[in-house]
Design a protein that fits this description.
CATH topology of one domain: Rossmann fold
Largest sheet: 7 strands, parallel
Number of strands: 13
Bound molecules: nicotinamide-adenine-dinucleotide, uridine-5'-diphosphate
Enzyme class: lyase
Subcellular location: Cytoplasm; Golgi apparatus, Golgi stack membrane
Strand content: 15-25%
Cofactor: NAD(+)
GO biological process, one term: UDP-D-xylose biosynthetic process
Protein name: UDP-glucuronate decarboxylase
Radius of gyration: 19 Å
Order of helices and strands: EHEEEHHEHEEHEEEHEEHEHH
Distance between the termini: 36 Å
Number of helices: 9
Shape: globular
CATH architecture of one domain: 3-Layer(aba) Sandwich
Oligomer: single chain
Length: about 325
């Protein structure tokens, strides 16, 4: 039964790294949460601690198929985010972004829900503009190994704006930059989890290329706060809006920080750079600061400590 005034929120990809933190936060805020996930890259372990909560509901479902539920808000996060996961079944990755967006937009249209899309800094590809602002159109290789993810997300943005213009949907598009924290999958292949797991095991730290490429790392709690603020922002604010931490580090610097914080004796080993790996990435978050009154609060050292603690306890 619906309780008056209690928001019913759908989180697709809710059993993933970011989705599980978002479900937790929404429950804390007093919402009813429906978590939809096909467990492609997420796990039940991520949300096991929420299953006893009567306001939490878990549904195994693939968003490439239609979904008929009644909700007030939709956070569309379903999509593998790590290159090894999204390149494992690239056709499914594109389908998840494109068919998934169509189905969730169709659902939002029918039930008049507000809908937020987790887009990505990857829409900028290997950028010629630095730092990246929302008005930069990007430089994506449409036929490369990363294209299933990048172009899928770009097409999802297109669909969001067309549903907004054509059907007057209330949309929010967030371009997320690299985010890390507890509940990243230990084998998920992303740089922060790889380096921490390797350092804790005393294994070599695998730097791809010469490690001079840069990324900007946002701690998960900061990112979740931004997503909530974006969903609650005025209806005339659609985004796209960059969400991330503007602190920019080379991958080598990251490796050195992880070694120092874990006290590990691991050495760096250098592997070839994967194709189409962007050279630099740093968000301009001026728009998020202005419209959402948001900026990240957790420094890289602080965030890494919390993440290391999580992995040291067994993940
Ligand atoms: P994740 O892989 O941990 O979570 C994605 C979740 O989506 C998983 O639980 C997975 O099982 C689920 N999923 C995948 N395909 C699905 C489908 N067809 N139907 C239903 N569920 C499906 O990744 P994450 O880091 O939590 O990323 C969440 C979202 O944020 C993704 O859309 C990702 O593209 C976006 N994003 C993340 C980052 C980051 O650094 N973490 C950066 C940019 C964008
Ligand atoms: N859809 C859904 N849930 C709903 C309503 C629609 O999953 O509650 C899906 C449905 O599969 C449809 C898609 O969303 O194909 C797009 O819906 P829309 O109404 O925009 O288009 P149409 O039904 O005309 O294809
Ligand atoms: N990377 C690395 N070693 C690893 C995993 C990744 O040097 O074990 C590099 C990767 O080549 C990229 C950066 O770290 O330059 C970030 O990679 P990640 O897969 O985390 O995210 P994305 O490339 O999607 O930003």
């Amino acid at each position: 039964m619906r309780v008056a005034n209690r928001k019913r929120v759908l989180v697709t990809g809710g059993a993933g790294f970011l989705g599980s933190h978002l479900c937790e936060r929404l429950l804390k805020d007093g919402c009813d949460v429906l978590c939809v996930d096909n467990f492609y890259s997420g796990t039940k372990d991520n949300i096991a601690h929420l299953l006893d909560n009567p306001r939490f509901e878990l549904m195994r479902h693939d968003v490439t198929f239609p979904l008929y539920v009644e909700v007030d808000e939709i956070y569309n996060l379903a999509c593998p985010a790590s290159p090894i996961h999204y390149q494992w079944d690239p056709v499914q990755t594109t389908k998840t972004s494109v068919h998934g967006a169509i189905n969730m937009l169709g659902l939002a249209k029918r039930v008049k829900a507000k809908i937020l899309q987790a887009s990505t800094s990857e829409v900028y590809g290997d950028p010629e503009v630095h730092p990246q602002r929302e008005d930069y159109w990007g430089r994506v290789n449409p036929i490369g190994f990363r294209a299933c993810y990048d172009e899928g997300k770009r097409c999802a943005e297109t669909l969001f704006f067309d549903y907004h213009r054509q059907h007057k949907l209330r949309i929010k598009v967030a371009r997320l930059f690299n985010t890390y924290g507890p509940r990243m999958h230990p084998n998920d292949g992303r740089v922060v989890s790889n380096f921490i797991v390797q350092a804790l095991r005393g294994e070599p730290i695998t730097v791809y290329g010469d490690g001079s490429q840069t990324r900007s790392f946002c701690y998960v709690d900061d990112l979740i706060e931004a997503l909530i603020r974006l969903m609650d922002s005025p209806d005339d604010f659609t985004g796209p809006v960059n969400l991330g931490n503007p602190g920019e580090f080379t991958i080598r610097e990251l490796a050195e920080k992880v070694i120092a914080l874990t006290g590990s004796r691991s050495q760096l080993v250098f592997h070839p750079l994967p194709p189409d790996d962007p050279v630099r990435r740093q968000p301009d978050i001026g728009l998020a600061r202005k419209v959402l009154g948001w900026q990240p609060e957790v420094s890289l050292a602080e965030g890494l400590e919390k993440t290391i603690e999580y992995f040291a306890k067994g993940g």
